[in-house]
Amino acid sequence: MSRTADTWILAAQCPSRLGTVDVVTRFLKEQRCYITEQHSFDDRLSGGFFIRTEFRPPAADFEGEAFRAAFVDRAAEFDMTFELTAPGTRMPVVIMVSKADHCLNDLLYRYRTGQLPIEIRAVVSNHPDLEPLAVWHGLPYHHLPITPETKAEQEARVWQVIEETGAELVILARYMQVLSSDLCEKLSGRAINIHHSLLPGFKGARPYHQAYDKGVKLVGATAHYINDDLDEGPIITQGVEPVSHADYPEDLVAKGRDIECLTLSRAVALHVERRVFLHASRTVVFDR
Amino acid sequence: MSRTADTWILAAQCPSRLGTVDVVTRFLKEQRCYITEQHSFDDRLSGGFFIRTEFRPPAADFEGEAFRAAFVDRAAEFDMTFELTAPGTRMPVVIMVSKADHCLNDLLYRYRTGQLPIEIRAVVSNHPDLEPLAVWHGLPYHHLPITPETKAEQEARVWQVIEETGAELVILARYMQVLSSDLCEKLSGRAINIHHSLLPGFKGARPYHQAYDKGVKLVGATAHYINDDLDEGPIITQGVEPVSHADYPEDLVAKGRDIECLTLSRAVALHVERRVFLHASRTVVFDR
Amino acid sequence: MSRTADTWILAAQCPSRLGTVDVVTRFLKEQRCYITEQHSFDDRLSGGFFIRTEFRPPAADFEGEAFRAAFVDRAAEFDMTFELTAPGTRMPVVIMVSKADHCLNDLLYRYRTGQLPIEIRAVVSNHPDLEPLAVWHGLPYHHLPITPETKAEQEARVWQVIEETGAELVILARYMQVLSSDLCEKLSGRAINIHHSLLPGFKGARPYHQAYDKGVKLVGATAHYINDDLDEGPIITQGVEPVSHADYPEDLVAKGRDIECLTLSRAVALHVERRVFLHASRTVVFDR
Amino acid sequence: MSRTADTWILAAQCPSRLGTVDVVTRFLKEQRCYITEQHSFDDRLSGGFFIRTEFRPPAADFEGEAFRAAFVDRAAEFDMTFELTAPGTRMPVVIMVSKADHCLNDLLYRYRTGQLPIEIRAVVSNHPDLEPLAVWHGLPYHHLPITPETKAEQEARVWQVIEETGAELVILARYMQVLSSDLCEKLSGRAINIHHSLLPGFKGARPYHQAYDKGVKLVGATAHYINDDLDEGPIITQGVEPVSHADYPEDLVAKGRDIECLTLSRAVALHVERRVFLHASRTVVFDR
């Protein structure tokens, strides 16, 4: 049996205050829930508190709704927001791509084999290229071309797909388009982008060519929540790969693909396992 | 101010049972202690529970002894053992070495600059070579030669040094001698050895030469608690370093030095920060 | 243009002797070939010499056959064996699998997108499970079940596939069957296996479960040429991944998949780019 | 016997042209020198050629001067610059520091134990703090304070130390002062600085604090040749270390120390082993 096949997750955050851990753990005890893993962190500099608990309920017929309803008042005393996630939950997801297929291919593989607890509802792209890949996986593919003139309209259709599919997470798997402020705001905290550099180094276009010009000996990738400030959203994961003088820009592009895939899928896994907490411009990540 | 300059650490373990987290966190709340960081883990396969809490006490005149005394009964209900560590505590340590000085040098540097919260009380060696290094750092150096005939006697003197200095931790920083079962038992859970291989691969002598013969592409080091079963004690940390065909055995020895130092000092830091829990033949490590 | 789109590769090895580099480089100069990258290594302990040269020919109509014919006598003076590889060469390959699909999926992706200069001619398996994956990529799939009684016969059919497809390399992408000595010998130096441990640690079956029992803090994978001595063939690449106490055996299995894929595909890339030289029980690898 | 105890190094570079490898290897053959390891690289984009050869001479009484004199004309035909380095050569070095001692301590240890083939002639600092450390190692310590007003004068005295000691390499081991353009130029290609970030990210002061503000999940260090453009000199080595939300700026400073030491000492080793070639704003590094 997999480690988490029978455990629920309670993830919560609130302003720092005496009793923040106790309000969670005492309630779990009262509910006769058995805590199998717990992390909490209090950010001294910003005054934020974060807690993530995995627990086994007292019986198989445990009612998440009743638990939630009973906890909501206690949480309110601490201005605490929380999410309760049942075992086996698969988060509904929309993936956005452009022409590069490596991240999409990697996510589809992990999805198909059950390695990532997600439910891909649709793939959206401004190009038709990756349709066969999506179709082979039995997924709807929305080809929504974009031009400067049609951007607003295209984004409206993108948003429609997200809404209609009930996607709780949007993964920008090398989408290569800058989202409008409006769409960024709608997707705040639930859209993860992969940037092919170690942000904040090499922001903007063609980061591997920038890296080549600087003669760096390491290239990397950064998965981050999008926000209105391009390539500046809160970082979730970063990965790195050594390179040498013998790597021309096109070699850096090729070498970077693996680390982009790993960095993005890692960030998605952490997000859907409720291990990531967004707090101003930073994240708290309770990794295993 | 450093992250932990004003935080106490409570580390505890006991058999798995409902309420193990609550008994700790409820008490801390009652004592008006503010939890800044907490990890807990319940080992499903072995039925062991482990918790580590960093907290700020309600006032500067917080009395550790009173806290301890008040908690001991509650802990007993759960067969829970615990340790309470005050901020600024420096664990008394004896370091044992042979002729190789890289790990000793590294530990002394971290000790001298306050990076490791330890108090080195003595350096013990079966060779005289490293005395100047110890002396420059103002440390007593006990040269206790060993032969097959004098092993029991030598170990008795080693034990005497440990006892007299009040050492709570013994670091075998490339000591290169096998301790007797008797001494292993006395030091159970409080002696850390560095082995220059990725255990359980290449147990025994000259692991880098074994690694060369096998043509491996990675060499490594393992820091572990010693036990009666040579090179089989519970592993705390492991580190790794890529090597190539151009590395002869003596190059592997040289390349391995850095990773040995890092792996050992990391294990010592984790131990003295009470992040390591020993449980049968394995460890639970709550890293940051 | 990609780095190697117009470069030929000359890879050679012979016993150590004065003039081994010169015999290669002088010839290239005479042929007006421009060396873009060269590595040579002389193994002091075993007395073997290895050289790999990438070069641009003087004109687009460069004749590999003529070059080969002209060099063969000079090479013979040094008992030198060599291979000349034209730009754009794709090595014919047969992949053998069992039920686990992660390595196959990874290789197919790299093949389909041109990242690996291979030409997959067939997929062979003792199970039917992965046929759809092969078929979607337009590849013949040979389901050749095996039992202790039919092993010889099954291997004969495997060998037939290898022969008929003209495969120069066989990739055991988690095939999970031990090949007979006879087949190992036939495939000497041209069959690469991925083992899911840091060999020589955890040889044999269920290495992740062995790793869990030992409480290691790193798991890894090893790609190696097969030979008659199970899990002891010459190592090409090794990869590693940190794990923790919170990873149960099934988590180690899951965590290991990525490093298995990367380690195997890296080994295949090195092999087909003629960067690996086999020499007794070890390899010389001229990585970029 | 160590790998390089009896091998000479010939390192050369010149503009790309047919015959650049041959001019070196033919000469070595004529001189009956046995090549044990060779790397060459031709940079397609910039048109530069680089070669590094380790060789064993035909006899113990091999005359470097005669070799050099005989090769100089041939090299001239190719506008080739070259350096010949005898086995056992220890490059004379001056180390410059400020108050932080970790890099100095690390370099002194490697120097003292013969791991780095350097001869430290002096330690220069704008502060008195590290004098005892230098003195224990038997090294002259020049305390040369600096103020905006006295900068020119101080640099003149620094230069005097470099000149008088015959230093061929200056190591800025966290010197924390910006050198004048004039001094940078004098030290072009022979002064290595360690910057505590993954350049070009986080240039300038307090990079760990910048990194904290950005919420990065990796911190790093960069060793580079200094040039007139602050923190923009050609990169030799880069290292990286994972960090988490629980690392405050002072924790990043602490965590970064190890990677700074390793990155700097690695760069120094590569430089003194003649593995680094400077070419415009980039380096070619022939690592093992």
TrEMBL record, chains A, B, C, D:
<dbReference type="InterPro" id="IPR036477">
    <property type="entry name" value="Formyl_transf_N_sf"/>
</dbReference>
<feature type="domain" description="Formyl transferase N-terminal">
    <location>
        <begin position="93"/>
        <end position="267"/>
    </location>
</feature>
<protein>
    <recommendedName>
        <fullName>Formyltetrahydrofolate deformylase</fullName>
        <ecNumber>3.5.1.10</ecNumber>
    </recommendedName>
</protein>
<keyword id="KW-0378">Hydrolase</keyword>
<dbReference type="InterPro" id="IPR045865">
    <property type="entry name" value="ACT-like_dom_sf"/>
</dbReference>
<dbReference type="GO" id="GO:0008864">
    <property type="term" value="F:formyltetrahydrofolate deformylase activity"/>
</dbReference>
<dbReference type="InterPro" id="IPR041729">
    <property type="entry name" value="Formyl-FH4-Hydrolase_C"/>
</dbReference>
<keyword id="KW-0554">One-carbon metabolism</keyword>
<keyword id="KW-0658">Purine biosynthesis</keyword>
<dbReference type="Pfam" id="PF00551">
    <property type="entry name" value="Formyl_trans_N"/>
</dbReference>
<comment type="similarity">
    <text>Belongs to the PurU family.</text>
</comment>
<feature type="active site">
    <location>
        <position position="231"/>
    </location>
</feature>
<dbReference type="InterPro" id="IPR044074">
    <property type="entry name" value="PurU_ACT"/>
</dbReference>
<dbReference type="InterPro" id="IPR004810">
    <property type="entry name" value="PurU"/>
</dbReference>
<comment type="pathway">
    <text>Purine metabolism; IMP biosynthesis via de novo pathway; formate from 10-formyl-5,6,7,8-tetrahydrofolate: step 1/1.</text>
</comment>
<dbReference type="InterPro" id="IPR002376">
    <property type="entry name" value="Formyl_transf_N"/>
</dbReference>
<comment type="function">
    <text>Catalyzes the hydrolysis of 10-formyltetrahydrofolate (formyl-FH4) to formate and tetrahydrofolate (FH4).</text>
</comment>
